[in-house]
Amino acid sequence: MSDPNQRIVITGIGLTAPNGNSLAEYRANLLAGKSGVSKYEIRYIGETLAGVCNFDPLKYQKRKDVRRGTRAGSIAIYCANEAVQHSGLNWAEVRKDRAGVFIGITEHGNVETENEIFEISKFNYDTSVWTHHHNPRTVANSPAGEVTLSLGITGPHLCIGAACAAGNAGFIQGLQMLRLGEVDLAIAGGVSESIHTFGIFAGFKSQGALATNSEPTRASRPFDLDRNGIVVAEGGGLVTLERLPDALKRGAKIYGEIVGHAMNSDATDFVLPDPTRQAECMSLALSRAGIGPEAIDILSSHATATEQGDIEESLAIHKVFGDRASLAINNTKSFIGHAMGAAGALELLGNLPAFDDLMAHATINLDRPDPRCALPQIVANTPRKMDRVEYILNNSFGMLGINSATIVKRYSGE
Amino acid sequence: MSADQIRQVIMKILCRIAPDNDLTALKDEVPFREQMELDSMDFLDIVMELRKAYRVQIPEEDYGFLSTMASTVQYLIPKLQTATA
Questions:
Q1: Chain B residues whose beta carbon lies within 8 Å of the beta carbon of residue A69
Q2: What is the pTM of this model?
Q3: Which residues form the domain of A213?
């Protein structure tokens, strides 16, 4: 890209995942094969499994703010503040009217609505005890809005509803707002509070897509013949995005440059994926990055451990990348479950340190590879040392046939 | 419910809705808002908590009676005279 102001780089990373509350901790656990899935109980469902985060919300919020806001808001505030600190930005000098917050979400408001219905059920469904906090908690911009309140940001904020493609969608929105000149700093990515709504567990269970396993850490098994569904997770991953010249001017450490992105739609089914459109999405991202498939070193797959989803994505990946052995394909959900709106963000961010350590983290719980997911490049169970890591491609797909792919390039100083 | 019991009820509610404030030195004659972080949504929390716990309906035109601890207790005495703490 000839105009340096159109080059968008990642300069700070804040995250919370079921197996780590910072990039360093998360990365170490991904390389160590440490799962974050545990037993979990939720109203009406009883005992199930989930990826649960254990960050301290009081690090950046008062008790009152936690009480008034939402879990998604607390996750977003934690991640945003961590990203800002990680970026080295002098926050007092940042123009708050030129900063924006763009957060991908799979859904928002289910948790708060379920809680309130449960509450009024104790009062014979008397709606006069329905909380006045309901509307500000459930408006779709709520998590991003809570970040603006926390950081005093007066530029634009919005949440991007994009099912499980939302993490990538948040990055893409931030990138576009920077390229358009609408903001000078974007806090972007995705969050999810989904483990706090029984409905998501019940929905997947009714669909025959909720994972069960006597050993929680073995439950999330993308590409494995013994998979039996999704492990729902919460989490968040937000980054600070800046234009390359701005980042260089302040001497920021650059964690990668977003050089390619794409989003498209299947237009075929509410839930079933379409490998043709998924392949087109990856190809469009490659085209925009100005590279061919041979340039990608690590492909972070979306696979959720549902039979059809895993198989269809494998077909799509094979169509674009073939059997090239130097490609490493991994899957983060095998460690943390499916973090919904945060999935795409966390899955990309956990791979970024590979630019420095040249390690492709593994896909764990892959004991009996499904032959219908015929991808010989999958990094099974133990990390792979790479000869080079210049480009990482991150897939994220979602219900209603929404597909997304982002490509991040190692920043080499050029 | 006695005045003292009502005061304790209100104090518990305040502790829940303003968990960051130290309320041990709360002055009963001074408006809540001058002593603690309390905005209109918090104020509605007081009304809601009383409604849930004691089925007390407080009409909007009476909200002014809830400005201090003393006036709140005084206002609630007749409404909570048959309630138990």
A1: none
A2: 0.97
A3: 8-249
